[in-house]
Amino acid sequence: MFPFFLFLLPFVLIFSSCKSSEPPLEGPAALAARGKAVYQSNCTACHNADPNVDGPLGPAIKGSSKDLIEARVIHGQYPAGYKPKRMTSLMAVMPYLQADIPALYEYLNAP
């Protein structure tokens, strides 16, 4: 009788050797990568996929300050003294992105 574990052994060996050869991202690069994913999945419907370019509803937001990002995304307002690029109030509040504000900031301010 053929032991069942010998049948599974090749699969275990193959999948255990499938490791990424790249080191994990750390610091600002990791935040920017996460910010890009957050931006692409939450912002591109209104802002352009390229944050340097105006979108169909929202303006270009490359280089936005952390205060502006937090005020608009979390509170639906502008920071004190900020002059908006567009005088609309179409942007939906997205409080579930609170933890992603630093990542969005890093992505929007990456070189």
Please tell me about this protein's structure.
By secondary structure, the chain is mostly helical. The chain has one domain: Orthogonal Bundle (Cytochrome Bc1 Complex, Chain D, domain 2). 42% of the residues lie in helices and 0% in strands. The chain has 4 helices and no strands. The mean pLDDT is 85.
Tell me, rounded to a whole number, the average pLDDT.
85
- What can be said about the biggest beta sheet? none
Order of helices and strands: HHHH
Contiguous helical run count? 4
Relative strand content = under 5%
Q: What is the CATH superfamily classification?
A: Cytochrome c-like domain
Query: If classified by CATH, what would the architecture be?
Result: Orthogonal Bundle
Number of domain modules: 1
Helix content percent band:
40-55%
Q: Compute the gyration radius: what is it?
A: 21 Å
Label the overall shape: globular
- Helix/sheet category: mainly alpha
Task: Tally the beta strands.
Answer: 0
State the separation between the terminal residues, measured CA to CA.
Answer: 63 Å
| Broad CATH class | Mainly Alpha
CATH topology: Cytochrome Bc1 Complex, Chain D, domain 2
As residue ranges, the low-confidence spans are none
Summarize the model shown.
The protein is an all-alpha fold and 111 residues long. The protein has four helices and no strands.
How is the topology of this model organized?
Blueprint: H1 4-16, H2 27-42, H3 66-75, H4 101-108
Helix pairs in contact: 2-4, 3-4
